[in-house]
Amino acid sequence: MLPVVQIKGVTHAYLGDHEASLALEDLDLTVEQGEFVSVVGPSGCGKTTLLSIISGLLRPTTGEVAVNGVPVTGPSPRVGYMLQQDYLFPWRSIMDNAVLGLELTGSLDTAGRAKTLQLLADMGLAGKENAYPSQLSGGMRQRVALVRTLAADPELLLLDEPFSALDYQIKLQLEDLVSETLRSRGTTAVLVTHDLSEAIAVSSRVILLQRNPGKIRRIFNVPEEIRLAPPLYARDQPGFGLLFHQIWQEMELAGRES
Ligand SMILES: Nc1ncnc2c1ncn2[C@@H]1O[C@H](COP(=O)(O)OP(=O)(O)OP(=O)(O)O)[C@@H](O)[C@H]1O
């Protein structure tokens, strides 16, 4: 089967006033159907740049990116992108916010509404359809943002620090809910996070980048017993501490060498 994400020889340089800064250099990566991978690394190693390139918001200086074999040439509803901020419109109800993606692509119909209502219920938001964002907690608003993204049935979901602004307890609950929802739908996802334990708890592979220039330093496979456990319990699995320690040490080295 064709990988969902194929990145070949991607280099990206941001042009400054006097010189270009190399954010990513000659990066190759594939992500298979149904995989949930995380990208971690020291600040400035190119994590957000990489997601922006996969999403089509940014064109790489050189190299190629394809989603399900189709070259990425710009933003497309095939790729959902969820950020730290929920970007809900305060004047629209929760339901109207949740169907926005479908509305914008002209594909909002009765089936789309029914699917969105089901997703809201799956996310524990039944009964909140007519509320407004200001009446919801931060964790609830992030769940609405996720419903809005998933309702459009993206072939790939990109998550840039979606839980980082939340309280620790809410964050753990949401990690569980999101990873269960994605697993049951077979959605392929790439998560950028600063939280190493979150990366290990939700993914099948952790991609460690190094900076100056941004490159893949090492890819860690998450052992099955951690991968198959719900994120809340993944942290209690015997191999969790060891893997955390290994990635942490490698990340320290990467930070020191750059
Ligand atoms: N718009 C831009 N113009 C110029 N340089 C940029 C721009 N955006 C990012 N950079 C530079 O590119 C490099 C990678 O940035 P990027 O934001 O992708 O890293 P990151 O790993 O996501 O960082 P952080 O963990 O701090 O969010 C950094 O050196 C950054 O300063």
TrEMBL record:
Single Gene Ontology MF annotation: ATP binding
Protein keywords: ATP-binding, Nucleotide-binding, Transport
Chain ranges passing through the membrane: none
Pfam families per the UniProt record, alphabetical: ABC_tran
Span of domain ABC transporter: 5-236
Keyword Nucleotide-binding: yes
Family matches, as Gene3D superfamilies: P-loop containing nucleotide triphosphate hydrolases
Superkingdom of source: Bacteria
PROSITE patterns: ABC_TRANSPORTER_1, ABC_TRANSPORTER_2
CDD domains named among the record's database cross-references: ABC_NrtD_SsuB_transporters
Entry-linked SMART domains: AAA
Record flagged with keyword Lipid biosynthesis: no
Signal peptide: none
Name the UniProt record assigns to this protein: Spermidine/putrescine ABC transporter ATP-binding protein
